[in-house]
Amino acid sequence: MANLIDTVTIVGLGLIGGSLGLAIKKKGLARKVIALALSRETIKEGKERGAIDEGTLSLKKGVKSADLLFIAVPTGSIVKMIKKSLPYLKEGCIITDVGSTKFDIVKEVEGFLPKRFSFIGGHPLAGSEESGIKAARLSLFKGSTYVLTPQAKADSSSLSLLKSLIKGIGAKVLILSPEVHDALLARTSHLPHLLATSLVNTVEDLGKRERKTFKVLTPGFKDTTRIAKSSSALWQDICLSNQRQILKALSEFKENLKKIERSIKEKDLAALGKQLNRANRILKSP
Fold first, then answer.
1. What CATH number is given to the structural domain containing 256?
2. Which side of the chain, N or C, has fewer Cβ within a 10 Å radius?
3. 102, 81, 99: which is closest to 149 by C-alpha?
4. How many domains, in total, are found in the chain?
5. How far is CA 88 from CA 52, 85, 118, 121, 148, in A?
6. Last residue within a domain, chosen from 161, 176, 191
7. Cβ atoms within 10 Å, residue 122
């Protein structure tokens, strides 16, 4: 595939940033991929794995030639990193992020971003409980959904280019408003993580009283709780950034859990079956 863009800079060479670099280079979507990283070791590994052409610890050197800038840092650091980058960016640079929440980020960035730059919020719905450049993989985005949250005043040519690049790495583009994104992801991503965390903590409490608890962990338990291995610092940022929607999601979940609890307590098989069958039917529907 011919280069869509000259220079892409990725700020943060972890799982997502590293995987972006691998896919962009493998598909030939950019002439050059540069990374801004926190350590020389990360840069060395990024080069060895073929995720980047160049790497630097200097913000100015890393972003000054970028035509497209990916901000792939923890959610709580995204806005700060964009602000720090602005003095060094060339006119016309397209800025996007990969944060798990969008409303607060988009609102704040739109409030200070000069007109000579474009910002399009992004969130690849891909990843794992692993982190760092070692966890990056070429196929991470293949067949996945990649959400973009452009504002009404977003430059159409910038949006078109970013969409083409995302399709080029194998993902499907979904356009959402920042508000809808945060409402949906609170239920489909953020809530599941908190439930996995609570489940592990509940079993660990039992393990303090019954030593054999961890000898009977089932495959279902392990599948359900795998995501709780993810970075706690990252998830603290997400919870605070999407606080309102996550609290709503928790409240809705507790109401559904109460229905199940009540049906078990009252030995109401019809009510219990209704809840179990409803979920079963939804997941089995085409």
1. 1.10.3660.10
2. C
3. 102
4. 2
5. 20, 6, 15, 20, 25
6. 176
7. 22
Report the distance separating Cα 124 and Cα 122, nearest Å.
7
d(CA 13, CA 55): 10
CATH of the domain at 111: 3.40.50.720
The residue type at 48: E
Note the pLDDT tens digit of each residue in 88-123.
999 999 999 999 999 999 999 999 999 999 999 999
Kindly state whether residues 171 and 188 are assigned to the same domain.
no
What is residue 140's predicted lDDT score, i.e. its pLDDT? 94
| 162 lies in the same domain as 258 | no
Decide: pTM greater than 0.85: yes
Using alpha carbons, select from 235, 244, 83, 82 the residue that is nearest to residue 179: 244
Output 70 or 133, whichever has higher pLDDT. Answer: 70
How would you label 251-282 residue by residue, b for 16+ Cβ within 10 Å and e otherwise?
eeeeeeeeeeeebeeeeeeeebeeeeeeeeee
Q: Which helix (H) or strand (E) holds 11?
A: strand 5-11
User: Which SS3 state, helix, strand or coil, does residue 128 take?
Assistant: coil
pLDDT at 160 over 80: yes
Rounded Cα–Cα distance for residues 71 and 200 (Å): 32
Asked if the model's pLDDT at residue 1 lies above 70, the reply is no
Per-residue pLDDT tens for 235-275?
999 999 999 999 999 999 999 999 999 999 999 999 999 99
Q: Which domain holds residue 263?
A: 181-284
* Measured CA distances, 172 to 3, 34, 129, 136, 260 (Å): 19, 24, 22, 19, 36
Of 118, 150, 176, the position where a domain reaches its end is 176
Instruction: Read off the pLDDT of residues 132-148 as tens digits, 9 standing for 90 and up.
Output: 898 889 999 999 999 99
- Contact criterion met (CB below 8 Å) for 23 and 135: no
